[in-house]
Amino acid sequence: MNVFRLTGDLSHLAAIIILLLKIWKSRSCAGISGKSQILFAIVFTTRYLDLLTSFISIYNTSMKVIYIGCAYATVYLIYMKFRATYDGNHDSFRVEFLVVPVGGLAVLVNHDFSFLEILWTFSIYLESVAILPQLFMISKTGEAETITTHYLFCLGLYRALYLLNWIWRFYFESFFDMIAIVAGVVQTVLYCDFFYLYITKVLKGKKLSLPA
Amino acid sequence: REFTYQHDEL
């Protein structure tokens, strides 16, 4: 464990909690892509199947359980409890265009051709693009609530911090995972445009709105 | 130097 990994995990946790609280407090999931949240639930489920096969640490196990629980709670709030507020018309990204190629890539490019390993690889690839339906939704409506931008910032920051963690581990632990690194770079790059808007607009007290 | 990977992250 190093400082980048810990702050990355906490940033990830903050993002998940911010989103849950935003939906719960406002009793609404307006502006939130249910499709992205389903993809994240799939990501956690396929990656954390190793909860059943290997134990790493109490920290590792409890964070995994919290992430999975929160992901399903979020999906439940969007599609069941506050379904009436879900903006399905604007959540029109075709997720099969992500899931199918990512599934194919996971079968072709992995560390080991075994069931759990392919699911792990699938989850890494899928996570890197899972935010696209949400970003697509924002580009379609042209705006996002400020609390939603805080969520996105924490979620993007998490993988950026993990990149620093992998550099650290490369030098100090001889740890090198090409699949995670390439996917992590892709994931972080997808947020760059958003990071720019967040810093130049939201942090200066303005609402995030895109030019028409 | 020998490099390895393991799935010990979140």
UniProtKB/TrEMBL annotation, chain A:
Topology in the lipid bilayer: Multi-pass membrane protein
Keyword Hydrolase: no
Listed GO biological process terms: protein retention in ER lumen; protein transport; vesicle-mediated transport
A Pfam family this chain is assigned to: ER_lumen_recept
Keyword Endoplasmic reticulum: yes
Entry-linked PROSITE patterns: ER_LUMEN_RECEPTOR_1, ER_LUMEN_RECEPTOR_2
GO cellular component terms, semicolon-separated: COPI-coated vesicle membrane; endoplasmic reticulum membrane; Golgi membrane
Residue stretches spanning the membrane: 65-82, 94-113, 119-138, 150-172, 178-199
Molecular function, one GO term: ER retention sequence binding
Keywords (A to Z) from UniProt: Cytoplasmic vesicle, Endoplasmic reticulum, ER-Golgi transport, Membrane, Protein transport, Receptor, Transmembrane, Transmembrane helix, Transport
Subcellular location: Cytoplasmic vesicle, COPI-coated vesicle membrane; Endoplasmic reticulum membrane; Golgi apparatus membrane
Family from the record: Belongs to the ERD2 family.
Record's protein name: ER lumen protein-retaining receptor
UniProt organism field: Cynoglossus semilaevis (Tongue sole)
